[in-house]
Amino acid sequence: MSEQTIALVTGANKGIGYEIAAGLGAFGWRVGVGARDRERRETAVAKLRAAGVDAFGVPLDVTDDASVAGAARLIEESAGRLDVLVNNAGITGDGAQAPTSVDLATVRAAVETNVLGVIRVTNALLPLLRRSASPRIVNMSSGVGSLTRQTTPGGETGPISAAYTPSKTFLNAVTVQYAKELRDTGILINAACPGYCATDLNGFRGVRTPEQGAAIAIRLSTLPDDGPTGGFFDDEGVVPW
Ligand code: NAP
């Protein structure tokens, strides 16, 4: 089996996901660029390759069972296993998100991508991760999903949001359940908060660069075998649930 570490980053065609792919690629890893749009995917792969990254395109819509199954097949055929999965793809959901007026379709879309998409992708790739000597899974969450921060007076909570914010709280809860089930498998799974980064997601209003946002996911992708699992981290350390 190849010694080269194999990683897959979902939503890697732009923003924080692209920078995670670039950062993992800089270690000499082979990096799958999971992206749903062919042109955006190929452009990102070409840019990463031009920067010296051993990148390959993985057609992937995390909301689509067939697409996710196809991605798992492609990685099995081309690499035979997966060492690191970064579940980065995410959406805020369109429109107003105040709980008293939110459209259920907005909530459903956020949960479908940010939570069910992570479960769908993770479960499809687990057989390949189980073949790795040191498998790692990173779920890109957000500090806004922290119930502790939301209920602490003066805490940093972001805008009122019945779709995006609870979807990240849900994702955190799912991360803990995976860690419990996988505790004795060697698979380490953690949630990451990238901080408020300037990307398409927020109309580029974030104050950090996507590269800065990628750093915590890169760190959690490279944890030693005795590293944490079932945790929630940002650049400063532990984020309260
Ligand atoms: P972004 O620039 O909008 O990138 C999001 C990525 O996810 C894009 O590549 C997008 O692909 C992809 N994506 C969305 N739905 C998908 C689907 N169904 N299947 C496959 N890919 C899909 O946003 P970002 O800021 O880099 O966000 C990356 C992650 O960080 C998200 O999970 C987000 O919630 C989280 N986060 C971001 C911030 C921040 O301040 N930016 C803060 C906290 C957490 P397309 O190009 O095809 O749309």
In short:
With 241 residues, the protein is α/β, with parallel strands linked by helices.
Q: What is the arithmetic mean of pLDDT?
A: 96
Number of helices: 7
- Report the bound ligands by name, code or SMILES: NADP nicotinamide-adenine-dinucleotide phosphate
Euclidean distance between termini CA atoms: 38 Å
Q: Can you identify the CATH class?
A: Alpha Beta
Q: Helix and strand layout, with pairings?
A:
Blueprint: E1 6-10, H1 15-25, E2 30-35, H2 38-50, E3 54-59, H3 65-79, E4 84-87, H4 104-129, E5 136-140, H5 147-151, H6 164-181, E6 188-192, H7 210-221, E7 232-234, E8 237-238
Parallel strand pairs: 1-2, 1-4, 2-3, 4-5, 5-6, 6-7
Antiparallel strand pairs: 7-8
The chain binds NADP nicotinamide-adenine-dinucleotide phosphate (NAP).
Structure description:
The chain is α/β, with parallel strands linked by helices and 241 residues long. It has a single domain, classed as 3-Layer(aba) Sandwich (Rossmann fold), CATH 3.40.50.720. Helix 3 packs parallel to helix 4 and helix 4 packs parallel to helix 6. The longest helix has 26 residues. It starts with 5 loop residues before the first strand and ends with a strand. The chain binds NADP nicotinamide-adenine-dinucleotide phosphate. NADP nicotinamide-adenine-dinucleotide phosphate binds next to helix 1 and helix 4.
